[in-house]
Amino acid sequence: MDCFFSHFATRDPGGFSDVDLQNLRKLLPVLALAIKSTALARIARTIAEVYLGHDAARKVFEGKINRGASERISAALWFSDLANYTRISASVSPEEIIPLLNDYSDAVISAVHEAGGTVLKLIGDGILAIFRADRQIDACDAALQAENLLRLRLKSLNTRRTSEGRPTTEVCLGLHIGDVFYGNIGSEDRLDFTVIGPAVNEVSRIVSLCRSLDVNLLTSSNFADCMEGRNRQRLACVGRFALKGVEGAQMLYTLVTPHHAVG
User: Phi first, then psi: what are they for 61, rounded to 5°?
Assistant: First the structure.
């Protein structure tokens, strides 16, 4: 952004006059500053959207950057991680880890975004996202739509990685719905725009049970209670479980479709 190239043309048969050229030379420094300012603003917004997500970036650019500034929202919560990631990372060369994470993160993130969700955090192989809507059932439907898109992407991804002789895995997913605080948390000079609250802890505990129950999707009873029609009929109860750090045991559900066994 230290310089820019410009080209000017005219329809005048005589070309630019000396006065025209003088005026253009006077204009160029101002034009360069305007272009640089616009480009830097676009770069800053792109960086914010890539690292924070579209919704969080918009809020930051609106000036909502005070520490502790947050709003209470109701959202469907998505927490996913990779099945057998520890075993895979210990058995492949270090050069394979980043491509593996990128491949599976892209599958998850693109599915969430296509279904209208917002990705808030990438935590190693884990991804935290939210889905918001005026009605809770619509937020839950969007989360299930993202889950379906994800499974289609994983099928294609695993076929490709198998043909390349690379390790493959599945994505374990926990879904919950509840109230969370959405905003800035951190110190005076380092903030994170995210969601906090008991519901976030709960969905992280739910996904951790996928391996022991040999399924790759679990939902809370709150999430299941929000569903109606065909989506509700697809949910099957897998039992009542105590979640670490969560008061009281609760019923958990999974989708009764063939592709939901971890294997």
Answer: -70, -20
What does the block give as tokens for 147?
């889950």
The answer to whether the beta carbons of residues 141 and 162 sit under 8 Å apart is no
As a whole number of angstroms, the distance between CA 163 and CA 75 comes to 39
Within the chain, which residue ranges are assigned CATH 3.30.70.1230?
A: 66-260
DSSP 3-40: ----------TT---HHHHHHHHHHHHHHHHHHHHHHH
- Containing H/E element for 127? strand 126-131
Cα separation, 176 vs 188, in Å, equals 31
> What is d(CA 170, CA 173) in angstroms, rounded to the nearest whole number?
10
- Within 10 angstroms of residue 56's Cβ, the number of other Cβ atoms is 23
Low-confidence stretches of the chain (pLDDT < 50) are: 258-263
pLDDT for 257: 64
**Which of 160, 133, 141, 29 lies closest to 75, judged by CA?**
133
- What span, in angstroms and rounded, lies between the C-alpha atoms of 220 and 237? 10
Is pTM beyond 0.70? Reply is: yes
Burial of 61 (0-12, 13-18, 19+ CB in 10 A): middle
Pick the CATH number of 66-260 from 3.30.70.1230, 3.40.50.300, 1.10.287.1080, 1.10.3210.10: 3.30.70.1230
Query: Model confidence over 203-260: pLDDT tens digits?
Result: 999 999 999 999 999 999 999 999 877 778 889 999 999 888 787 888 999 988 644 4
